[in-house]
Specification:
The protein has 3 helices and no strands.
């Protein structure tokens, strides 16, 4: 996410125009502190969209970054090996905040 922020300048408003757009740095820092907070994520999205609308060079760089990011991430290769697995095995990508509650049974099955 930081690559688009390498250019720190934002165009100054003309005359008594609206205030400068956020660079997105504060919104990014807030999201990094609480990465699951959807409001903080939306604030960053909004800051990036506003800045891109006001700054053509930033928009171009942001679009280039987005294209590279989409091309870079995707394939997942899962492999389970090494003997018996005693517990859940989850295969996928980008898991977070998972909790498993497992108990081991101590009862023996009835034999008749």
């Amino acid at each position: 996410m930081r690559r688009p922020f390498q250019r720190r300048t934002v165009p100054e408003p003309a005359g008594n125009g609206p205030p400068r757009a956020s660079s997105g740095e504060l919104e990014l820092a807030a999201l990094q502190e609480h990465s699951t907070d959807l409001n903080r994520a939306q604030a960053l999205v909004t800051a990036l969209h506003v800045r891109a609308a006001l700054d053509e060079e930033f928009r171009v760089r942001l679009e280039e970054w987005w294209q590279r990011a989409q091309a870079a991430g995707g394939e997942v290769h899962n492999c389970v090996s090494g003997g018996t697995q005693n517990g859940p095995v989850i295969q996928g990508r980008d898991f977070s905040n998972l909790t498993f509650h497992m108990t081991r049974g101590t009862e023996k099955p009835d034999r008749k």
